[in-house]
């Protein structure tokens, strides 16, 4: 793949390890005949470390031998979280500490959850853009609350705390953006 064609979310081989591109910054030349530089910020999918590197637009970048497989949550045993491949029923495990932030949005029946597989080993998860979660605890609404921009904290079924509009109550199902943790609307 040419460096100028690489977009955020692409998975490339950099320094013999798979990296997912998080941001791309294009730096135009100031002199005539100069080359446009593409500066990448990437995250190593195995070690979770950040890496910055720059390339000319015509440089070739190697794509990683990488797969995304749909999985479902099986169980958590404290140290590890176990997932089941929906197609061939392989089991994968990830350390609970590595995916603690993502676990705020994962339920047993979540569809669209993808395991990132590199060399037949699960190295991470990719969440769907939004998930539907049930509110299990929030302050009751007061008569006269309207659909204004006032919010209140609500605890969801996974333990995540999200700011929701005042008119929502316990038991309602809402959509939450998994990238930002923001309330999107009722489900």
UniProtKB/TrEMBL annotation:
Name used for this protein in its record: Elongation factor P-like protein
Keyword terms: Elongation factor, Protein biosynthesis
GO CC annotation, single: cytosol
Entry's Gene Ontology molecular function annotations: translation elongation factor activity
Family statement: Belongs to the elongation factor P family.
PANTHER family in alphabetical order: ELONGATION FACTOR P, TRANSLATION ELONGATION FACTOR KOW-LIKE DOMAIN-CONTAINING PROTEIN
SUPFAM superfamilies on file: Nucleic acid-binding proteins
The species this protein was found in: Bythopirellula goksoeyrii
């Amino acid at each position: 793949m040419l460096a100028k064609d690489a977009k955020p979310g692409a998975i490339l081989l950099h320094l013999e390890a798979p990296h997912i591109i998080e941001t791309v910054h294009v730096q135009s030349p100031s002199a005539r005949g100069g080359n446009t530089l593409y500066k990448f910020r990437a995250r190593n999918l195995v070690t979770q470390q950040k890496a910055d590197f720059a390339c000319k637009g015509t440089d070739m970048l190697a794509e990683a031998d990488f797969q995304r497989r749909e999985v479902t949550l099986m169980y958590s045993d404290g140290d590890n979280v176990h997932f089941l491949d929906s197609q061939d029923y392989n089991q994968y495990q990830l350390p609970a500490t590595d995916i603690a932030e993502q676990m705020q949005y994962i339920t047993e029946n979540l569809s669209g959850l993808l395991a990132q597989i590199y060399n037949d080993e699960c190295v991470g998860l990719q969440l769907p853009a939004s998930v539907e979660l049930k509110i299990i605890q929030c302050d009751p609404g007061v008569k006269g609350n309207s659909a204004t921009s006032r919010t209140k904290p609500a605890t969801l079924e996974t333990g995540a705390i999200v700011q929701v509009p005042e008119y929502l109550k316990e038991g309602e199902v809402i959509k939450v953006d998994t990238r930002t943790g923001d309330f999107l609307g009722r489900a």
